[in-house]
Design goal:
The complex is a heterodimer of chains A (about 160) and B (about 500). Chain A is mainly α and about 160 residues long. Chain A has five helices and no strands. The radius of gyration of chain A is 24 Å and the shape is flat. In chain B, strands 1-2 form a two-stranded antiparallel ribbon. Classes of the chains: A mainly alpha (about 160), B mainly alpha (about 500).
């Protein structure tokens, strides 16, 4: 960079957010361009997406400026393993529900995985607690509030 | 006089035994969930929304009112006893309240917070009851262009004016607006941004976004830095009762907090942070015991707590009379209304007065229940605080997933929950505010509808949005509010370079 300003490393995070916003703007504009029905007068369904895409693009530029001139706020160190455990718990939740394993099993696994992320090591105990919580929630929602929850082999018993 | 009759009828609705029971359940659940560390009122309301699915609209909204106020009370208990406020508005309470608890005066701190919230909530709800009909009269005059302009004001104040960084606030807002585009366009029936996924045709659920951002995001955030920031729970020692001296020092602060909180909450001015902060500053200046500030001054708990509660009632005013949510909590409440096909606004006052006034009356009821229940039950709430962190957050995630599954049992919905959780984590990490995104999601489509209505009435003449003096004035306010933070920042930089 020419001038008196000292050379400063690019703030990668701000660049990343900027690129994310560019992608969102592109998707919104591309999708809007495919809309075939528009209004004869007034504003069609494509106008707002274009407007929002424009706003996102401006904000992306703002982030690139921040990346060059300053940086996003300081980040604290973080523990990737904890995040991985919760992510695994959520993935298991989605998989179990998707594959028809039922609500209670899904809750049991999610509970134990999250507890593990927060440093618990007694997995069996936590699975049992999760199971109890799942059964309790299932009974409350399906019997008391008559909402339908995903069914699996265990739910068939109640 | 009309207001008295209407409110009286509201009380007839709210005091029916079944409705009292709903209010009691709401207050109890709201406090129980709100007291859990890391859970603010917005998340409390979002998590408990599914519980109200099967009730009738009036009963459900009454339970909702209880949950909302209960969540507020619960939050202040947490910030006094463990200094990890669930949301920024109770941060100020934690400042002095946590010090008081450390000095063995946790009882009086909880008491002044509870009684102050009661006083503020009651006065502010009276304000709500008496100003709302007046605002409704005004709102009847509003055309589509005026509504659109009003929403633009809300967008700007929520995202840009009062946050740390207008850039980050606006980014959050625009991502919310983007999410709001997803689904079927209401006027032409075309699908936008659905990528052929049928589950997306109905649009993104506000509760899924809110629960993902707040609950899943918060769990990820706390887990990721658990090793770096341990917490400590303080026991409530000594008497719960406030001394004569405590009362003398509290009542003025309560009233001042109320009169700051209600108007600022009622104007679309971006939540409860401003009034609580202002109240703290004023109490610090007015106190006869300045040396106690920073070491547990009771005024520093009483004032901000009152301001916080009064502004919560204040936010209900634009929500009920104009259908305009100005906080994340209000956005979720609006989603609660919409699940019954109810649209808050002047029409609702005319068509369902029983519901609106029943809701307002039940706010009074909830307030009384809270002050009667909470102080005696404080021991129970403290027990909840002692749940070990791993189980607490595991339970929160189970609750979050459960609510989502109950609302829409699909893999797509759960995937969105996880995705929003990741987004919420990144936003927490890089200090982006979350509320503008939630408000953008729910208010964006409404603003678009109003704008398109205005333009089709004017046969496409875009100047229509400046022709109404109300709309033009509001847009000018929005422009000012957008520019102000940049100008003030510029001045700051100017000053700094002068030094």
């Amino acid at each position: 960079m020419p001038g008196a300003r000292a050379r400063k490393p690019l703030d990668r995070a701000a660049v990343g957010v900027g690129l994310f916003l560019v992608a969102l703007a592109g998707i919104a504009a591309w999708d809007a361009s495919r809309l075939t029905l528009t209004s004869t007068y007034g504003m069609g369904p494509e106008a707002m997406p274009y407007l929002i895409a424009g706003g996102l693009a401006v904000l992306a530029i703002g982030h690139f400026v921040v990346a060059v001139r300053s940086a996003l706020p300081e980040r604290e160190p973080f523990d990737l393993r904890a995040i991985a455990w919760i992510a695994a718990g959520l993935a298991a939740l989605i998989a179990v529900i998707g594959l028809g394993g039922g609500f209670i099993v899904a809750m049991m696994i999610l509970f134990a995985a999250t507890a593990r992320a927060f440093g618990r090591t007694a997995i069996v105990t936590d699975l049992l607690i999760g199971f109890g919580l799942g059964v309790l929630a299932y009974l409350m929602f399906s019997k008391l509030l008559t909402l339908s929850l995903p069914q699996g082999p265990l739910e068939a018993l109640f | 006089m009309d207001t008295f009759t209407a409110l009286g009828q509201g009380f007839v609705v709210a005091l029916a035994p079944a409705k009292l029971l709903y209010a009691l359940v709401g207050v109890f659940l709201g406090t129980a969930v709100g007291v859990l560390p890391g859970i603010g009122p917005a998340l409390t309301v979002a998590l408990l929304l599914p519980v109200t699915f099967k009730l009738d609209p009036t009963g459900s909204l009454i339970m909702f009112a209880g949950i909302y106020y209960g969540g507020m009370y619960g939050g202040s208990t947490t910030s006094i006893l463990i200094n990890t406020p669930g949301e920024s508005a109770t941060m100020i309470t934690a400042l002095e309240g946590n010090r008081m608890a450390k000095a063995g005066r946790g009882g009086p701190a909880l008491a002044t917070a509870a009684i102050g919230s009661f006083v503020a909530g009651t006065i502010a709800t009276i304000g709500l009851a008496f100003f709302s009909p007046w605002l409704v009269q005004l709102a009847i005059e509003f055309g589509p262009a005026d509504y659109f302009a009003l929403m633009v004001v809300a967008f700007v104040t929520v995202s840009a004016t009062f946050g740390d960084s207008p850039l980050r606030g606006l980014t959050s807002l625009f991502v919310g607006l983007f999410l709001g585009l997803i689904g079927i366009d209401r006027l032409t029936g075309q699908a936008r941004l659905t990528f052929g996924v049928p589950e997306l045709l109905d649009g993104i659920e506000v509760t899924t976004l809110a629960v993902g951002l707040f609950a899943v995001g918060e769990a990820l955030f706390v887990a990721s830095r658990r090793k770096h920031a341990p917490e400590e729970i303080l026991a409530v020692r000594g008497s719960l009762w406030m001394t004569k001296e405590d009362w003398r020092r509290s009542w003025g602060a309560w009233l001042r907090g109320t009169f700051l909180g209600f108007p600022i909450g009622a104007l679309p001015a971006g939540g409860a942070e401003i009034p609580t902060f202002l109240s703290y500053t004023i109490e610090k200046r007015l106190t006869k015991h300045p040396e106690e500030f920073g070491h547990g001054a009771i005024e520093g708990v009483a004032g901000p707590e009152a301001a916080n509660n009064a502004s919560a009632a204040g936010t209900l005013m634009p929500l009920l009379t104009l259908g305009l949510p100005t906080s994340a909590t209000a956005a979720i409440m609006l989603a609660g209304f919409q699940q019954y096909g109810l649209n808050p606004g002047p029409l609702l006052f005319a068509e369902r007065p029983d519901l609106v006034w029943g809701l307002i009356a039940s706010l009074f009821v909830a307030n009384v229940m809270l002050v009667v229940l909470n102080l005696p039950l404080v021991g129970l709430w403290v027990r909840l605080l002692a749940i070990p962190q791993p189980w607490l957050y595991a339970g929160i995630l189970v609750f979050a997933a459960m609510g989502t599954v109950a609302a829409k049992p699909s893999v797509v919905e759960l995937s969105m929950l996880a995705l929003f959780g990741a987004l919420g984590f990144l936003m927490r990490r890089f200090d982006y505010p979350v509320a503008p995104m939630v408000v953008g999601l729910i208010l964006g489509p409404m603003a678009e509808t109003q704008l398109r209505r205005a333009l089709s009435i004017s046969l496409g003449d875009p100047l229509v949005i400046l022709e109404s003096p109300i709309a033009a004035g509001l847009l000018a306010v929005a422009a000012l509010a957008l520019i102000a933070p940049f100008v003030m920042r510029g001045l700051d930089r100017f000053k700094a370079s002068e030094d």
